[in-house]
Design goal:
- There is one protein chain.
- This protein is α/β, with parallel strands linked by helices.
- It contains 6 helices and 5 strands, in the order αβαβαααβββα.
- It has helices at residues 3-14, 28-34, 52-57, 63-69, 74-87, 139-162; strands at residues 18-22, 43-48, 97-103, 117-124, 127-134.
- The protein starts with a helix and ends with a helix.
Length: 163
């Protein structure tokens, strides 16, 4: 069983919904989740906010935060994860889990951050956490690594929340 299939199975058993906000992964993370049969029961959807301005207009990331730090910052990942929970609400019910990726896939640095600098945000009611990744390889390896590490972060949270 793949990690995505395991995560979808856990979400389904626990009746939790998820939404994804992506930048450098460009939809690859939500694509990995929806590749699992039955994912429609738990995956609300995803937002690809590749351009910095869209992080503000689509996900509600504070414009001053983006102006001060740029899109590659832990607070931006946290805000994207929180924002996607609210923005993909259905009938006034926010998504249970928001997962977000922002970073530099390369080949060039962005905003003083080198390729492989990535932040993954996870937001649930009452808690937001961010993991910083330092990935290596070419653009595709960094994007793939971000997807894998994002799923692993979600899997760890699900394991902790079970205890």
């Amino acid at each position: 069983m793949t990690l995505a299939a395991d995560v979808v199975a856990q979400l389904t058993r626990r009746r939790l919904t998820i939404a994804v906000a992506e930048s450098l992964t460009g939809g690859a993370l939500v694509s990995e989740l929806v590749s699992v049969p039955g994912a429609s029961a738990v995956v609300r959807g995803g937002v690809v906010a590749y351009q910095t301005e869209l992080k503000h207009t689509l996900l509600g990331v504070d414009a001053n935060l983006l102006a001060r730090h740029g899109p590659v910052h832990p607070d931006v990942a946290a805000s994207m994860a929180t924002g996607v929970r609210d923005r993909l609400a259905v009938d006034g019910h926010p998504v249970d889990i928001g997962l977000a990726t922002t970073g530099v896939a390369g080949p060039d640095p962005q905003g003083g951050h080198g390729p492989g600098t990535v932040f993954v945000g996870l937001a649930v009611p009452g808690e937001v956490r961010v993991v910083e990744l330092a990935l290596s390889g070419d653009r595709q390896a960094i994007r793939s690594g971000t997807v894998s590490e994002s799923l692993a972060m979600l899997d760890r949270w699900l394991a902790e929340a079970r205890e």
